[in-house]
Specification:
Layout (H helix, E strand, L loop, with lengths): L8 H15 L4 E2 H8 L3 H12 L5 E13 L1 H9 L2 H8 L5 E2 H4 L5 H10 L3 E4 L7 E4 L7 H10 L8 H9 L3 E13 L16 H6 L26 H15 L3 E2 L6 E3 H4 L31 H12 L14 H5 L1 E3 L4 H12 L7 E10 L11 E12 L3 H15 L4 E8 L2 E11 L4 E11 L1 H4 L8 E9 L1 H17 L19
Helix pairs in contact: 1-3, 2-3, 4-8, 5-7
Length: 504
């Protein structure tokens, strides 16, 4: 390869050194050197920096300069004329309907500028609607002339106000150019000698190190950053959920009581004692302490009555409600037990005030362990209490909530819950799986749950709950989960249950 064609690192550096030798002792600028060598300026800057790393071969002083350049729109105007001139030229002697003029490529901008220059006039009372006419015989396209001066390298001949006006119209931009002034260094040479970076045992044994040039150590250089931990995707999404709830005016509930009594976990929610969810195959029961003892007795009696006898317009479940079952301690199966406590506390206020609560915490289910299920997962719960809330309020709140999360495709399906009526399951469309996936459950709490607490009759409570793991996958998708965990993720992961494992 001839020197004129060489553009690789060492060859390019040598060409620059030879050009510097020809320039004499005064030095040369990097722009001029790049032009002389037929290179892009950035290529030459790379050669300058590689020579600087060799020591005192060259001296390079960085300089900055400003110049004016045309934007793509400015270049178009130099070729075609300004928008206002094009609009003027498009108007025939009999005028042009304003609606047709606005359809022209330069119509909107050009009409505004032409009106400002008093080149055209608008007749609003013309037959067939507003019509545009020429107001002068001919015009001078000063904008195009000024841009032509800039293109010819004579931007400084324009007045500052003209440059600022063109810049405001985004036809002109000020560019800062960083260049180098290059001089010979104390160790100047027209050839580049490769410097050694390692002192090897062979060099020491043979003594060859005495005749070699070594690259100087840079004691200021930063070392390689050590590998460190990263936030788990679920933690990132949990933080985002919490921020969304706070933005929507919710208050976080204290959800740190993993051990709960069956009363608050089931009975207070109007869930009958013979419900399958209370079976040992679904719920973890504690042996020590096996039972809770502290209950609000008046409230407990009302709950017992609504279960066994009915009341508040309900016939109840008509069974023999037992205190022994209500006292059993369990690992909570849902954070709705926390919501029940908060709503009871809200009902004890002297005057009811609307409230919005949320919680994000762990719940426990006696699941069969597999790739997508563990004995615990994270539940997200939102509760709104106010007068006259309807199913429409619930659907609107859910759409707002999921839209803030980045999930916009939602569907609602009727469902059954013991403590909500009506109830809805929430589905979102997963682009990766190309199907609708359930992301949560929702509903309006039953009067049999709310009225025994002491809440006023007109108060409704809308609520929804979802597993933190499922919307994480909906939101990020499999490819982004890969990026978040920094490993390969098994594509065969199952999405129809709470995600408990990432196969990496």
């Amino acid at each position: 390869m001839s020197p004129a064609m060489a553009t690789d690192g060492p060859a390019l550096a040598e060409r620059l050194l030879q050009q510097l030798e020809r320039a004499g002792g005064g030095g040369l600028g990097s722009l001029e050197a790049a032009a002389a060598l037929g290179l892009e300026h950035q290529q030459l800057v790379g050669a300058v920096k590689s020579l600087q790393a060799l020591g005192e071969v060259i001296e390079a002083e960085q300089r900055s300069s400003k110049r004016w350049e045309l934007t793509p729109e400015g270049k178009e105007i130099v070729q075609e004329g300004s928008h206002e001139a094009r609009v003027f030229d498009s108007i025939p002697a009999e005028g042009l309907p304003q609606s047709e003029l606005m359809k022209l490529p330069s119509g909107k901008v050009g009409f505004s500028k032409a009106m400002s220059n008093k080149w055209v006039r608008l007749d609003k009372n013309a037959d067939g609607g507003p019509r545009i006419f020429r107001a002068v015989e001919s015009v001078r396209d000063a904008v195009r002339e000024k841009l032509q001066l800039v293109q010819q390298g004579e931007a400084e001949s324009l007045e500052e106000k003209d440059r600022n006006e063109l810049k405001k119209r985004k036809l002109l931009m000020e560019v800062i150019i960083k260049t180098y002034w290059i001089r010979k260094g104390s160790a100047f040479s027209t050839t580049v000698t490769k410097q050694e970076t390692d002192l090897t045992p062979e060099m020491l044994a043979s003594g060859s190190w005495r005749d070699l040039k070594f690259k100087a150590y840079n004691f200021e250089a930063l070392g390689i950053m050590p590998e460190s931990g990263h936030l788990h995707p679920l933690l990132k999404v949990r933080t985002q959920f919490r921020q969304i709830f706070l933005e929507m005016g919710f208050t976080e509930m204290p959800a740190n009581n993993f051990i709960e009594s069956s009363f608050w976990n089931f009975d207070a929610l109007f869930q009958p004692q013979q419900h399958p969810a209370r079976d040992q195959h679904d719920t973890f029961f504690l042996q020590d302490p096996a039972e809770a003892t502290d209950f609000p007795m008046d409230y407990l009696k009302r709950v017992k009555k609504i279960h066994s006898q009915g009341g508040y317009g309900s016939q109840g479940y008509k069974y023999d409600w037992k205190l022994e079952e209500a006292r059993k301690n369990i690992l909570r199966t849902h954070t709705t037990a926390v919501s029940a406590r908060m709503l009871y506390r809200l009902a004890q206020q002297e005057k009811f005030t609307p409230a919005k609560y949320f919680s994000i915490d762990r719940v426990f289910r006696n699941e069969t362990l597999d790739a997508t299920h563990l004995a615990e997962f994270h539940q997200i719960e939102g509760v709104v209490a106010d007068y006259g809330l309807t199913l429409g309020d619930l659907m609107g709140t859910l759409r707002e909530f999921f839209t803030k999360l980045g999930i916009s495709q939602l569907r609602f399906k009727p469902a059954y819950n013991p403590y909500t009526e009506p109830s809805m399951e929430v589905f979102s469309y997963h682009q990766g799986l190309q199907k609708w996936v359930e992301v949560g459950n929702s509903g309006i709490f039953r009067p049999e749950m709310l009225l025994p607490m002491g809440l006023p009759e007109g108060v409704s409570v809308i609520a929804w709950g979802l597993s933190l793991e499922r919307p994480t996958m909906i939101k990020y998708g499999i490819n982004n989960i890969r990026e978040l965990v920094g490993h390969k993720v098994n594509l065969q992961m199952v999405y129809d249950g709470p995600l408990c494992r990432l196969d990496v």
